């Protein structure tokens, strides 16, 4: 057993500056997925959402696109993925549909036109960027077959604040258009690859700079161990990075010339998919063309090694937030690398349950958003 498997809930010292956590987790006592809004200055739960996923599933019109929805995504199995607090209140979350609920967990809308998944981010206009799977595939049948289950045609999906589709583009088609088709259909000697992309994060660019333009997006492709900068306006890949990260997640823009990536460091060895050492947070500086590992010793010493999923955020203070998804653990490091606090999602039965891509809220606009929500949310019938 790993050392933290004696822990439960929050352990450590709360944050000294106003910040919050949208903690998405499977509640092993309720046997349901919930989202909690937590004050990180005292670890108090300020609000809880518990959506009725079974009721939401019954409203889906395009049931043919989601044949396994009621089996794999129901109240007893579902965790609301990567929750987001929008400016107009309520809660947004994802996988396999983008859904919005109010403060009392009542459904406002759900987009059932696309099979969305993984991370959900917003741009300055409030539009949502989320990975999607195009059904049927946008690629020719002679390449990927007639059945939608033959090939995972991951796509960039842009939605308006009310869930309407504004833009959608196949990532495989982007590869083909930019001379990278060989990465889809001619890698290795084991035949056709069903899921060559595995898009897990889209980070929109909100300002013009030396290395990017407003409207660009950074994409994280797990099965390519690649991050690239894409310009939808011209359908161009502006930059791509591979090599220092393996099966990575969560690309973030840190400043005008630096990005960070959560490096799972997981590799497909003969024994299967394993973390080769520990997870890392990798930064890339466009000015110097250099990669660096951020607070690597801290992640090593605290045995952070989620094989899949995983999140990280380097704060302006230099503090580091990490989610070790597979092991139900969230960690916060001070800028000097010392561990400030952890949270372990353990139920009363002693088991540790998964968490669902939680989000730390620390920017001034985020704090204002939370405070406005708390003032306006009203009371709900339990």
Q: How far do the termini sit from each other?
A: 38 Å
* Structural class label: mainly beta
Let me know the largest β-sheet: 5 strands, antiparallel
* Tally of alpha and pi helices: 7
Report on the structure:
About 10% of the residues lie in helices and about 35% in strands. It is built from 7 helices and 28 strands. Strand 5 and strand 6 (about 90-95) form a beta hairpin. The protein is globular. About 40% of the residues are buried. The model has no long low-confidence stretch (mean pLDDT about 95).
What's the quick description here?
The protein is mainly beta. The chain is built from 7 helices and 28 strands. The longest helix has 13 residues.
Architecture blueprint of SSEs:
Blueprint: E1 9-12, E2 20-27, E3 32-39, E4 44-49, H1 53-57, H2 69-72, E5 81-84, E6 91-94, E7 98-101, E8 107-111, E9 115-116, E10 121-122, E11 128-133, H3 141-144, E12 154-159, E13 165-170, H4 171-177, H5 182-185, E14 199-204, E15 217-221, E16 226-231, E17 236-242, E18 249-253, E19 258-263, E20 266-269, E21 272-275, E22 280-285, E23 290-293, H6 296-301, E24 311-314, E25 320-324, E26 329-333, E27 339-344, E28 359-361, H7 364-376
Antiparallel strand pairs: 1-27, 2-3, 2-28, 3-4, 5-6, 6-7, 7-8, 9-11, 10-11, 11-12, 12-13, 14-15, 15-16, 16-17, 18-19, 19-22, 20-21, 22-23, 24-25, 25-26, 26-27
